[in-house]
């Protein structure tokens, strides 16, 4: 039987719990994306935080903290089969214990490690690429990452911008991390909501664009290398590549 979860990490871990203590799942899928079929039976699993916590604790104590991190990072990935990847990985992990980390090429381990690395790498990349704009009462930054990484960015920027109110907006998923100088939380946030720059921000973005244009050495421009470090799909949210003030667009 396929188990369907609500999209939350607790929901996924609840499915893992029932796969052990009820009927073993043939697959674990996000309910909103599930392709129903007459050939497959399925069950919508109600999220139970207390059961999810048991699985969470068991991963940490019976496998490793590293395995828990890998599990969470895969959950944050954009892979449609992530529920199945995590399910297979944890079944092997609970069987082998901490030594599962030595089975890096195992078919139930390798895709988890590769996916977790991609998520971690993208989050690390955005730690340097994210640009904040002054909206008057708070700082605002937008991005459209491949993976759901704004939670990973929240602690990083909350530690570095402790005295600032800020918002990190994932336009692809219409989610935002909102920080109030004490704590952060995740909220739905529509791209259709209009936000206006402060007068000072407009001035400083113009200065930044001029600096970016003039600092480059013409004969050392390397578009291929630049694209490796700043992929084209990220550039629409970087003012030095797409100036929102006067419509000047850099290629």
UniProtKB/TrEMBL annotation:
DUF4130 domain segment(s): 81-240
Highest taxon above the source species:
Bacteria
InterPro entries attached to this UniProt entry = DNA_repair_put, DUF4130
Q: Which Pfam families match?
A: DUF4130
Task: Tell me the NCBIfam families matching this sequence.
Answer: SAM_7_link_chp
The protein in question is named: DUF4130 domain-containing protein
**Organism of this sequence:** Syntrophobotulus glycolicus (strain DSM 8271 / FlGlyR)
């Amino acid at each position: 039987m396929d188990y369907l979860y609500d999209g939350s990490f607790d929901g996924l871990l609840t499915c893992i719990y029932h796969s052990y203590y009820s009927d073993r799942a043939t697959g674990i899928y996000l309910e909103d994306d599930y392709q129903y079929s007459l050939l497959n039976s399925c069950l919508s699993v109600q999220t139970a935080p207390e059961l999810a916590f048991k699985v969470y604790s068991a991963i940490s104590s019976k496998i490793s903290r590293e395995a828990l991190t890998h599990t969470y990072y895969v959950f944050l990935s954009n892979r449609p089969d992530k529920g199945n990847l995590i399910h297979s990985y944890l079944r092997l992990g609970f069987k082998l214990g901490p030594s599962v980390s030595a089975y890096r090429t195992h078919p139930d381990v390798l895709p988890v490690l590769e996916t977790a690395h991609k998520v971690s790498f993208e989050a690390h990349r955005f730690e340097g690429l994210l640009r904040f704009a002054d909206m008057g009462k708070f700082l605002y930054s937008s991005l459209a990452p491949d993976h759901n990484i704004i939670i990973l960015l929240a602690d990083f920027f909350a530690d570095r911008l402790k005295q600032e109110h800020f918002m990190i907006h994932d336009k692809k998923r219409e989610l935002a991390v909102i920080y109030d100088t004490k704590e952060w939380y995740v909220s739905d946030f529509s791209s259709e909501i209009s936000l206006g720059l402060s007068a000072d921000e407009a001035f400083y973005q113009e200065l930044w664009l001029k600096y970016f244009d003039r600092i480059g050495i013409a004969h050392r421009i390397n578009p291929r290398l630049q694209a490796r470090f700043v992929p084209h799909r990220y550039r629409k949210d970087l003012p030095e590549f797409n100036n929102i003030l006067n419509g000047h667009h850099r290629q």
